[in-house]
Amino acid sequence: MGRRKKGDPVSGWVCFDKPYDFGSTQAVGKVRWLFNAQKAGHAGTLDPLATGILPIALGEATKTVSFMVEADKTYRFTILWGTSTTTLDREGAVTGASDVRPTPEEVEAALPRFIGQIEQVPPAYSAIKVDGERAYDLARAGETVELASRIVRIDGLSVVGQPDPDRIEIEMRCGKGAYVRAIVRDLAAALGAEGHVDQLRRTRVGPFTEDNAIRLEKLEELVHRGAGQEALLPVETALDDIPALAVTDEDAFRLSQGRAVVLLPRQVETMRAQMREDRAVLARQGQKAIAICEMRAGQIRPIRVFNL
Q: Alpha-carbon distance 67 to 73, whole Å?
């Protein structure tokens, strides 16, 4: 007999609105503790100094985290002109100063060069590993960190506000791996200015948005009055761009045992019309998610089976 897992078999996603100065690992631990969940994980690290959307998976939802890796993201951030810092945000030591204060029109005119598939050098203070060590650990230890440029996808950049002459607010839509701090560094250089990230908020990760987000205080309130389930989104929330296939009770049983299911020609045709490159299909029995499958040669074969 296997060892019994500690905690409750809670499954689902929490669209957590992470507060300022709260690490992603800390947030996962807090949410897991509140639900007394057996398993937990997150989709996309968010800096402690940033606020906003941190999708946290509990239980069986952790099997879908990998499908969030490619999720598009949206950020809103404020640049403070006048000084650059070691960390490219307000926590670092000042490395440069300037009286240049770009206008919103000047910023807007410079943004197009940073849209599309662009080369970006990640910040030295990032979680990227260099010879097995985190870049930010090496940088904090006083070592010179040189990171190679990488191709990232920026779908959109636009000025959305100017709180005062020293600050400008920008919204960015992007794919995975893009750094707001690197955009600010490179934008300031292009404008002949000095600047750093003053405020940063992530407003969307794939299907997780501010509309379905929950703050820590509200989550604690719900859990303490026994209504924590109200904060849980379905396990398959992270699979919104994967085609769903309704299966029979018999086929659901076969899939739950790890066995393949042969599809009818019309089912194959329907799935092919909606399929992504990874050939993933979500098998459902009524409203219940059964398994994430791969479709090949007219069959679906389970690659992640849900125990719901």
A: 14
